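Q: What changes when glutamine is included in the input?
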Amino acid sequence: MDYQLLLEDIVDTLRPELGKAGQVASYIPALARVPAAQFGIALRTCDGQEAHAGDSTTPFSIQSISKLFALTLGMQAMGEKLWERIGREPSGNPFNSLVQLESEQGIPRNPFINAGAIAVTDRLVSLFDAKAHMLGLLTSLCGEPIAFDDEVAASEAATGFRNIALANFMKSFGRIDNDVGPVLDAYFHHCSIRMSCLQLARAAGYLCRDGQHPYSGEQVLTEKQARRVNALMLTCGTYDAAGEFAFRIGLPCKSGVGGGIVAVVPDKLTLCVWSPALEHSGNSLLGMKALEMFAGRTGVSVF
Ligand SMILES: NC(=O)CC[C@H](N)C(=O)O
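A: The predicted holo structure follows.
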């Protein structure tokens, strides 16, 4: 399979649709001003072959894709104990919903909705400098320095009323150990990280390699843990559109409201697409189309 030709073809096919449908996230100015007519795609195979096309080296706000790496840090540090306060079921609700937390005593459904990622971040904050560890992990995984976007982090904090509510609500059930301030500060900074499609395709490489670091080969996660992350991505990685993703694409995916989506083809490759305009659940509209085309043309699926 000539992946480079395939990715270029996907870019050419989708280019006429750029900027025509969907809405760029508008809850903070730094995201609202991102031009919608951008599209990038990149992949890295298990054995280190790379291909990329379109705006694949343009950094964007990874937003909820950071939840993948926060979970990885949590699994590395805590193993099974992490699951004492976080579930593993799809929520079927928007990523920032409060409704289930009340009836489920402050235990979030999964680590990929906001409440779940805030709960994971609380565990990280108890153990180490969660912001520094996140940058350290990402810098190691993609082999180049990764940084926060301080403007985005400040705007997330200034407008993050729901996330502040989620953290306080969980705290009221005794499910958050630390003061909510430092936990939210780390969560907002994690959301603000900027990376390109190519960097994310590299960084998520351990997920198609049974947990092995994409360059050094060290175990980032055990094989079993990596399989579990992929399972969670498939069932919970795209919020209330997880069913639609499984139906149309058939791969574990994690999306963010910056318009990025990371997808894993176990034992083959990791893929990242980015286009800022979103559908109603907060997933990239053209990113979904591109992944559907990729899966259709290559025949890859976990089913
Ligand atoms: N789905 C997302 O990407 C949400 C991230 C966003 N910063 C939030 O916390 O609401």
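Observations recorded in class: The pocket of glutamine is lined by residues 63-64, 95-96, 114, 156, 163, 191, 256-257, 282 (CB under 6 Å).
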